[in-house]
Amino acid sequence: MIVAEELSRSYRRPRSTPFGPRTQVRALHEVSFEVVAGQRFGVVGESGSGKSTLVRLLAGLDSPSSGAVRFDGQLVSGRRQRDLDFLRSRLQVVFQDPMGSLDPRMRVADIIAEPLVAQRIPGRAERVAEVLAAVGLPASAADRYPHQFSGGQRQRICLARALAPRPQVLIADEPVSALDVSVRAQVLNLLSDLVDRYSLTLVFVSHDLSVVRHVCDTVAVLKSGQLVELGAVEQVYRRPRHPYTRQLVRAVPTLRGALAGITAADLTP
Q1: Residue 60 falls in which region: left (phi positive, over 0), alpha (psi -120 to 50) or beta
Q2: What is the pTM of this model?
Q3: Alpha carbon distance 92, 76 (integer Å)
Q4: In angstroms, rounded to a whole number, what is the distance separating the alpha carbons of residues 157 and 55?
Q5: Hey, CA dihedral for 58, 62, 66, 68, is it positive or negative?
Q6: Phi, psi of 179, deg, nearest 5
Q7: Residue 114, class by beta-carbon neighbours within 10 Å (0-12 exposed, 13-18 middle, 19+ buried)?
C-alpha cells in the first residue's frame, strides 16, 4: 500500500545573523520500508528523529530531497497538490494537537464534512452522523464548537473527520501525546476498534514504544533521521538488536518502577 524508497529530506536552517551561513539540517537519510494493506505499522523515535518529516512525506504534504514515496503503485513525491486527488481520497491524517487541528469558528458538523466537501462526496449529513456515532459522540455534538469539548473529545472529532471520506489508510501522528493520561487509553482503544471495524491500514507514529506495542504489529525505529531497526513489534520489543532500541525498551515504565519509593503511608486514605 505504501512504499518508501530511500527517503531523504534536508532543510536549510535560517541564518543566526544577517550575513551568517545557512546550515543544512538532515531530517531523514535514506529511509526505506513497505506497509502492506491491513498492517498496523508503528514508527517510534525521540523528538528530532524525523517522525513528523516522514509523516509529511507519506501524506504528500512535503517532497523528499531524494528518494520516492509510492501509494498503491502510484508516485506521490514530487507531484503537484492538484495531482494528488487519488491520495487525498484514500489516505487521511490525524495530528498530535486536536485543538490546533480544528477551526474554532466552525461547528463540528462542518469540520467533519470538510473532506467530503473538498472531494464532492454526497450524503454529508448522514455521513457526519454516522462517524460521530462511530467515535462515541452524541448527535448533538454536530451543532457545537471545538472549545466546548474536552481534549479527548476533540481528538474523537479529528478521528471522525479523518474517517468521513472512507479512507483506506489512516496516519496517526502522536495522536494521544497531547491528552491527559486518564483519557489516552480510551482514545487508543477507540482507534484500535475503528481500524478493525473499517479494515484500515494504520501508520501510527509515537515516541513511546509501549504505546506502539499496544496498537501495532510492526515497528520501525528512527534515530537521527535513520531507520535503525524494523520488524515485528513483539520481536523488536523482546529482542532489540540496536543499542538505541534497547534504550527505548529500558525506558518503558514498569509497575515495579512506578511503585518505587511509595511507602505504606502514601497508600493510606
Answers
A1: left
A2: 0.88
A3: 14
A4: 20
A5: positive
A6: -100, 160
A7: middle
Non-local (6+) Cβ contacts of 157 within 8 A are 98, 102, 108, 111, 112, 135, 137, 141, 146, 149
Domain 1-8+27-90+167-252 in CATH: superfamily? P-loop containing nucleotide triphosphate hydrolases (3.40.50.300)
Host H or E run for residue 4: strand 2-12
User: What cell numbers appear for 266 in the block?
Assistant: 502514601
Q: Is 157 within 8 Å of 146 (Cβ atoms)?
A: yes
pLDDT along the chain (269 residues), means of 10: 96 71 85 97 93 94 95 92 89 89 94 92 94 96 95 94 96 88 88 95 93 94 96 94 92 50 39
Is 139 in contact with 130 (CB distance < 8 Å)? Answer: no
Rounded to a whole number of angstroms, the CA Rg of the chain reads 20
Locate CATH 3.40.50.300 in the chain: 1-8+27-90+167-252
Sign of CA dihedral 94, 183, 150, 187: positive
Residue with cell 524525523: 50
Cα angle 156-190-124, degrees, rounded to a multiple of 5: 45
Q: How far is CA 65 from CA 51, 203, 225, in A?
A: 16, 22, 13
**Cα separation of 65 and 8, whole Å?**
6
**Widest distance between CA atoms in the chain:** 64
C-alpha span between 189 and 49 (Å, rounded): 26
